[in-house]
Amino acid sequence: MNNLNTLINGFDALSGAAFGGGGGGGGGGGGAVYRGGSYVRNTPNTIKNKATLSAQKSGLPGATNGKQDAYRHCVATGEASRQYGETVAILGGMYHEITNPNPPSVRAMDLNNNAAVAHIGSKSNSFNEVEKGCMTAVSSGRLQTRP
Hints:
The chain is mainly α. It is built from 6 helices and 2 strands, in the order αββααααα. It has helices at residues 2-14, 44-57, 67-84, 86-99, 104-122, 127-139, and strands spanning 33-35, 38-40. It has a two-stranded antiparallel ribbon. Strand 1 and strand 2 (38-40) form a beta hairpin. The model is unreliable at 12-31 (pLDDT under 50).
């Protein structure tokens, strides 16, 4: 139930608006960090910002519809999956694509990439592991980099 509440409260944050609630507490799970007697998760906005910064530092070309863009989507989805679970990460990505319209080919590319990499986060124990998994996904050609 905590993941469902986080999903509902975090959708607007995933689309760039202010975070509406959710976050830490509860029974942990999915990569949450244990601090001071409770589990602490990043807000979706924080995850988005961390993914953007990681992509900018990656050295990959193509910040828009290129390798860097695919990597950024991977890191955001992977980290959301690590902290909240694959279903929440995929649905949050879908909501973001619906509420931030792109041409259909770009939306399809982003949705496919998000779905293709959610497992990276669910198998990772740290943000660094998510980044490494995403770099491998981009380098191996597993992610679509052009609409």
